[in-house]
Amino acid sequence: VTVAAGQRLATNARTRTTQIAQEGAPAPAEDPAPLPTAPPRSKPTAAAPRWATWSERVRAGDFTGVVSEAERGPLAATLVRADEETLTALADAARYTRHESLATRALETLRRRFPRGASARDAAFHLGRLEEARHGPGARAIAWYDRYLREAPDGTFAAQALARKVDAVARTAGPAQARALAEEYLARFPDGAFAATARALIAR
User: Could you read off the pLDDT tens digit of each residue along the chain, which spans 204 residues?
Assistant: First the structure.
């Protein structure tokens, strides 16, 4: 979730809600209500696509609203016609609200329709995380992490992708098979969030 300077992000895993508020505003309640839809900067014309402001709404935290609107409309047409930014917004909203099937469809469409875009590379990492969440740390999840690391070796999610791969290999094939990967992680990200776990794995 992109948070601008002066904003605070609050999430509730139990109710699966997310709220973005300005610093200094009262802290959200334990069960924060979804943010209202941000008003559009200009009134869309009758011919404008219904999803014209999804990116703005995701930035404002209206994840549930975007998912609901996508599910009410002709989703297949949206996947075919929407631009890269809109598909990315839909995928993000679906991931944040744990609509895994919808997120997977949007991410796979991003990779198919915009294969050279940065969003397509990031989609490989997110597809790995979705695969792992739905089916565990198996070969398909590892394959997505590998694909991301090949396409974006210095990308935003490179450290996370390698850490997830190390963990998945350790859990499916055993620590011995993951030691070389853990050493690679430490060589590339010695101060990374996974560094302590990688060192412990090597020491086994």
Answer: 666 676 777 777 766 567 676 666 555 444 444 444 444 554 444 444 565 689 999 999 999 999 999 999 899 999 999 999 999 999 999 999 999 999 999 999 999 999 998 999 999 999 999 999 999 999 999 999 999 999 999 999 999 999 999 999 999 999 999 999 999 999 999 999 999 999 999 998
CA proximity to 17, closest of 126, 100, 93, 106: 93
* 88, 90, 124 from 107: Cα distances, Å: 7, 9, 8
pTM attached to this predicted model:
0.74
Backbone angles phi, psi at 67, to 5 degrees: -65, -45
Residues 6 or more apart whose CB falls under 8 angstroms from that of 184 comprise 162
CB atoms within 10 A of CB 153: 11
Nearest CA among 181, 186, 188, 190 for reference residue 154:
188
Which of 179, 180, 151, 148 has its CA nearest to residue 161? 148
| C-alpha span between 194 and 167 (Å, rounded) | 10
Q: Which of 1-33 are b and which e, b meaning 16 or more Cβ less than 10 Å from the residue's Cβ?
A: eeeeeeeeeeeeeeeebbbbbeeeeeebeeebe
Give the pair of three-digit tokens for residue 144: 């997505």
